[in-house]
Amino acid sequence: MRDLLYLERVEQAETLLKPQRIEVLRQLAEPRSCTEVAARLDQTQQRVYYHVKRLTEHGLVTQVAERRVRGINEGVYQAAARAYWLSPRLVGRIGLPQRRDEASLGYLLDLAEEVQSDVAVLHDYARAGEPDLPSLGVSGAIRVRPEQRPEFMADLKSALQDLFTKYGGADGDAFKLAVACYPHREEREEGEG
């Protein structure tokens, strides 16, 4: 089972985005037959098999074994991945690209799409046996008073610019650096209550 399956074909997304199929897929986190899934979901075996067949046709589920039960061969299936990401390219960009201020949420959304796409490609390289794909993910929360926000943003930009200047030469392996800074959702929810 893969860690991630990046869905870039409309047919895959259409197949996946049906509530009953998502429930079937969740049951297939562990290898199971359609009979076992049907019992767990209180559905008919035929209905579950129909969904499993569609999921299998589009590479979202794989048959991992077959066993003989009461004289009949029964397939055992498993989800193809632990997580499924839908590519933003499934819809594509609507309208012309806009020039955005790097402090806008629109810019952050564009950046998140780009990072998601890049990570999916790197994940496929890693699965193909590409040696040593170094990466770093850092996440944390900080607190900045409203009157300090401009100074904080300037400091952050300066620190990053120092890194770009120090390591921005033409020699060595190329790395992409993306930094996102946005209000923490839980903080906003607490303040709204």
Describe this protein's structure.
This is ArsR family transcriptional regulator. It comes from Paractinoplanes durhamensis. Helix 2 (19-27) packs across helix 4. This protein starts with a strand and ends with a helix. The strands form two sheets. A three-stranded antiparallel sheet has the order 2-4-3. The relative contact order is 0.11. The protein is built from seven helices and five strands, in the order βααβααβββααα. The mean pLDDT is 85. The chain has 193 residues and is an alpha+beta fold. It folds into two domains: 2-85, Arc Repressor Mutant, subunit A (Orthogonal Bundle), CATH 1.10.10.10; 94-192, no CATH class. It is elongated.
Provide a quick synopsis of the model.
The protein is built from 7 helices and 5 strands.
How would you describe this structure in keywords?
single chain, 193 residues, alpha+beta, Arc Repressor Mutant, subunit A, 2 domains, two-stranded parallel sheet, 5 strands, 45% helix
Distance between the termini: 42 Å
- Roughly what is the average pLDDT, rounded to an integer? 85
Structural class: alpha+beta
Number of domains: 2
Strand and helix map with partners:
Blueprint: E1 2-7, H1 10-16, H2 19-27, E2 32-33, H3 34-41, H4 45-57, E3 61-69, E4 72-79, E5 81-86, H5 105-127, H6 149-167, H7 185-192
Parallel strand pairs: 1-5
Antiparallel strand pairs: 2-4, 3-4
Helix pairs in contact: 2-4, 3-4
